[in-house]
Amino acid sequence: MRIEGADPGTVRPGGRTARVRASVLQAAGDALAEHGFAGLDLADIARRAEVGKTTVYRRWGTVTILVADLLTDMAEQSLPRTETGSLLGDLKANARLVQRTLADPRQGALFKAVIAAATCEAKTAEALHRFYDIRVKEWAPCVQQAIDRGEVPEGTDVHEVIRAVSAPLYYRLLTSSGGLDEAAADQAAEAAVAAARAGAYLRGDEGHA
Fold first, then answer.
1. Does this model's pTM top 0.85?
2. C-alpha dihedral over 82, 88, 93, 96, to 10 degrees?
3. What is the CA radius of gyration of the chain?
4. How far is CA 129 from CA 31, 71, 75, 119, in A?
5. Where are the CATH 1.10.10.60 domain residues in the chain?
6. Regions of the chain with pLDDT less than 70
7. Measured between alpha carbons, how far is 44 from 99 in angstroms, rounded to an integer?
8. Regarding the domain with residue range 79-208, which homologous superfamily does it belong to in the CATH classification?
9. Closest by alpha carbon to 77, among 108, 104, 101, 106?
10. Does domain 15-74 have CATH number 1.10.10.60?
11. Which region, left, alpha or beta, applies to residue 52 given φ > 0 means left and ψ of -120 to 50 means alpha?
12. At what angle are helices 15-35 and 63-77 packed, to 10 degrees?
């Protein structure tokens, strides 16, 4: 059965079809990390996954759609948010999750390749935006809980606080040859909390009252 409006490769199946999808996405991630977006080839991915080329071409059709499906799967498989009882504790958990992902040789290379591809491939850009939208929405409730506890001002943009945690870590990934460690993650979380408490992320005119 095909869901109305769904792109090929985006319907979550079960049974053997699910195993084929998992194998192909694993192979696509490996190839993307090794060769970048420009080096992706559906036939090579089928060979790596030990799946028939016809199956891969029929199901995904293009490498862009396959990468979009890979990002969807990564967002859905990512660890759920942590609740520590404090905004700083929650955001440190978030930052360390991002740090571990980006510091991993395979995952870091994969994200660099996807970000590069998103600058010139509209479908990849859409998939990347959807990936981060899912992750930001997953973690945003911890900021709302902090508002409810009185840790940060009413009117704080919960999504912007979460984005502020990840942004410096991605910046380091793309601009620095140095390692990305837990100290950098903790610093990003601490800076986001300090800014949120100071009212830096108040929505609209609320920041100018």
1. no
2. 170
3. 19
4. 22, 10, 11, 12
5. 15-74
6. 1-14, 205-209
7. 30
8. Tetracycline Repressor, domain 2 (1.10.357.10)
9. 101
10. yes
11. beta
12. 110
